[in-house]
Amino acid sequence: MQISIAKNQRRLLIILLSVPLLLLTLGIYHGLLQTLYRSGMLSQRTFAALDFYQGLTLHGVINAVVLTTFFAVAFGHACMTYYLNMPVNRLLAWLSGGVMLVGTLLAAGAMLSGTSSVLYTFYPPLKAHPAFYLGAALLIVGSWIAYFDWIGMYRRWKRTHAEVKTPLPVLATLVNFTIWFFCTLAVAYEVLVLLLPWSLGWVEAINIPLARTLFWFFGHALVYFWLLPVYIMYYSMLPSLAGGKLYSDNAGRLVFLLFLIFSIPVGVHHQFGEPSISKGMKLSQAIMTFGVAVPSFITAFTIAASLEYSVWRKNPQRRRLFSWLFQLPFFDKDRYLFAYLIAGLILFIFGGFTGLVNASYSLNNVVHNTAWIPGHFHMTVAGPVFLGILGMSLHLLEQVTGRRTRRRRIATVVPWLWLIGLLTFSTGLMVSGLKGAPRRTNMGLSYLNPESPLFRTDWVLWETIGVIGGCIMFAAAGLYFLVLVDLLLCKKTKEAGLSFPAYAVLHDEPRAALLDNFRPWLAVMFFTLIIAYVPVFRDIQNYTGPGAKPYAPESNQPLELTK
Amino acid sequence: MRSMDQHEIKIMGWTGMLLAVFLTATLLGVSRYATDVPDCVPYDAAFLEPKVTRLDSNLYQVNLLAQMWNFEPSEIYLPVGAEVDFYLTSKDVVHGFHIANKNLNMMAVPGGVNKMTVKFDQPGVYEMICHEYCGSGHQHMRGEVIVNYPVK
Predict the structure, then answer these.
(1) How do strand A246-248 and strand A50-51 relate by DSSP bridges?
(2) Residues of A whose CB is below 8 A from B23
């Protein structure tokens, strides 16, 4: 079913989808270059006027923050409009988009000027340009404005639909942005209260363990903010794309509501190696991190069951345990979205299990900050998340421009080529990480430079495999942009509007009040957050010494501040 | 819960059990092989002074200082069988400290002091690598633990 949406909203969607895709060309370019630097094929600080660490900052900020946030807002607008059949508030939606855009431009300017090479985690006391911090804050605040509008829409809809199940994608969108709102409060505090005055020279020193803990309060919930829009696609679109139905509707609801509880109070598992947080807190959040694996295991079952059903439905004979796996429409060019989603799901199997390794308390000592970590998270954020964003962006752009891409075969090849490249890339990085190779390091200057006394022959093979994977991924991304440019050039063939693959459910259980009400889940979420984080902040208070002055990446002396 | 398919309920039980197995394995590893995460120590400016102290016949204390862009001390000589308490902090920005085949893996954070204990049973040169981006010299920040003579 296609619904029509106002022209101004279509325009807004086009802007929200295409701005980050445009920036992505830069992010992906430097993704490829990093593999070359790391492997020693480039043995220099800068290439084509872009420094390694400056490019790494751009790669992280654009790919993991700008693209994902813009997409989550655009997809949120689309889901709220489509499933509630209500327009978003024109003023608020444009205001939200405008603030995000200004923030992005400020941060991009700061990074391109070379004054903010602090990577996307911007750990102090390395100091970025104030515009970098301000830009990041505006990007976040802009996304809040869209969320506030959606809350109003949901309330208005609920008034006339009190006893009707909230559509799953609406519930999930609101869950996702509720997580986002509360976790970004912490990073907004870090940026606006700690970093910005300090970067302007108004405050001399800041508490570094506190800033890091505030960052990771946000940082792990961030990965679910990336992931949940794609989970919405898995639940509400993937089953019908395969020709089947979602196995259980209430299981889906439970999954999203569990994320509401478990997404934030797990951030300390990124800080197992840090001082100022006691072992007890590290262990308790390790256990909580196992809790956040539960909804993903349920998802694995529900989606697999839905796909299995889709095959038996068409072909009820010859039911063997795994034979359905080979009868899915993996390469159907008329359903290219299926290919993007399933390829992402396959990558996520590996991404999920390597994530459990990282979360496993002292096992983290083996992998922390080695190349294993980017090997792992590329199989999540550059796996299901990125492929979901690419597939859905193409689908939405087709809808809102009233065009139909002519390069459907190429569009279908992209996710599979990406999958091959990414598995190669991640294998290379993870093995070299297990052999001790660090992440975030221009190793072409030292460890992988044959002329350096630091040369490590045992890392060469695996970093080279990383390059091969990187080249394949780069080629896949190139093909995707080819499809996009071709879409721009082709003629309008149908009425512009909005439509998604139908949401159909096999076990459409009756409405369970508990699974259609935010209040009890929010109460548990606040309770868990307090239990998990109050003792951590107390530890930081008890164990931390004096604050730190700002440093520039180029000098081992603190920056002289002009008062 | 009658409002959900029975298989879904079952899979939640299986998930719980699988995660319990993972968790038990982790905790067994901690207790049996004495692999633990770093301990945090109340901050004391004395840890900013790098030194190697012999506490007992084979017990050593190393105050390791991370700074842009080296470790102090950058070469640590130890006898085979030395058991070492590493205390780590940073003079300037955040650094990492990793000895791969010893699973010695800590963050050096200004304002915080980290502690980890490790035993060097085998002679060899153990490379210490900074694995957190710490500025333009990061890729050269490293040091060595040299374990090369028997205990007297």
Answers:
(1) unpaired
(2) 287, 290
Residue A235 has pLDDT above 90, yes or no: yes
Catalytic residue among A129, A220, A269, A456: A220
B114 touching A, CB under 8 A? Answer: yes
Q: pLDDT for A180-233, tens place per residue?
A: 999 999 999 999 999 999 999 999 999 999 999 999 999 999 999 999 999 999
Nearest to A72 by CA among A113, A16, A2, A118: A16
Residue A508 has pLDDT above 70, yes or no: yes
Q: What domain range is A211 assigned to?
A: 7-316+328-543
Bridge partners (DSSP) of residue B97 are B106
Tokens at residue A55, please?
Answer: 């490019």
Contact flag A302-B89 (C-beta cutoff 8 Å): no
Q: Specify the CATH number for the domain of residue A202.
A: 1.20.210.10
For residues A158-197, b (16+ Cβ closer than 10 Å) or e, as one string? Answer: eeeeeeebbbbbbbbbbbbbbbbbbbbebbbbbbeebbbe
The domain spans of chain B are 1-35, 39-149
**B-chain residues near A545 (CB < 8 A):** 43-45, 111-113
Distance CA B140, CA B129 (A): 9
Provide φ and ψ at A253, rounded to 5°: -60, -45
CB A107 within 8 A of CB A131: yes
Instruction: Choose among A13, A81, A14, A4: nearest CA to A487.
Output: A14
Asked whether residue A186 is domain-assigned, the answer is yes
Q: What pLDDT is stored for residue A378 in this prediction?
A: 97
A440 is catalytic: yes
Sign of CA dihedral A83, A87, A89, A95: positive
Smallest Cβ–Cβ distance between B111 and the set A271, A369, A548 belongs to A548
Say how many C-beta atoms besides its own lie within 10 A of residue A494's C-beta: 12
Contact B15 A509 (CB under 8 A): no
Complex confidence, ipTM: 0.94
**Chain A interface mutation, best of B14, B26, B44, B134, highest count of A Cβ atoms under 10 Å:** B26
Any idea what the Cα angle at residue A341 is, between residues A336 and A346, rounded to 5°? Answer: 125
Query: Helix A90-112 vs helix A7-39: angle between axes, to the nearest 10 degrees?
Result: 20
Cβ contact A212:A274 at 8 Å: yes
Q: Give pLDDT, residue A563.
A: 41
Pairing of strands B104-108, B124-129: unpaired
Among A83, A122, A177, A224, the active-site one is A224
Q: Give the residue among A124, A128, A105, A123 at the shortest CA–CA distance from A54.
A: A128
* CB contact (8 A) between residue B29 and residue A294: no
Mean pLDDT (chain A) is 94
> A118 is written with which tokens?
């602090």
pLDDT surpasses 50 at A346? yes
Q: Average pLDDT of chain B?
A: 92
Superfamily of domain B39-149: Cupredoxins -  blue copper proteins (2.60.40.420)
pLDDT in tens, A251-304: 999 999 999 999 999 999 999 999 999 999 999 999 999 999 999 999 999 999
Q: How far is CA A90 from the centre of its chain?
A: 26
Condensed to tens digits (0 to 9), the pLDDT of residues A122-180 reads: 999 999 999 999 999 999 999 999 999 999 999 999 999 988 999 999 999 999 999 99
B44 touches chain A (CB under 8 A): yes
- Asked whether residue A219 is domain-assigned, the answer is yes
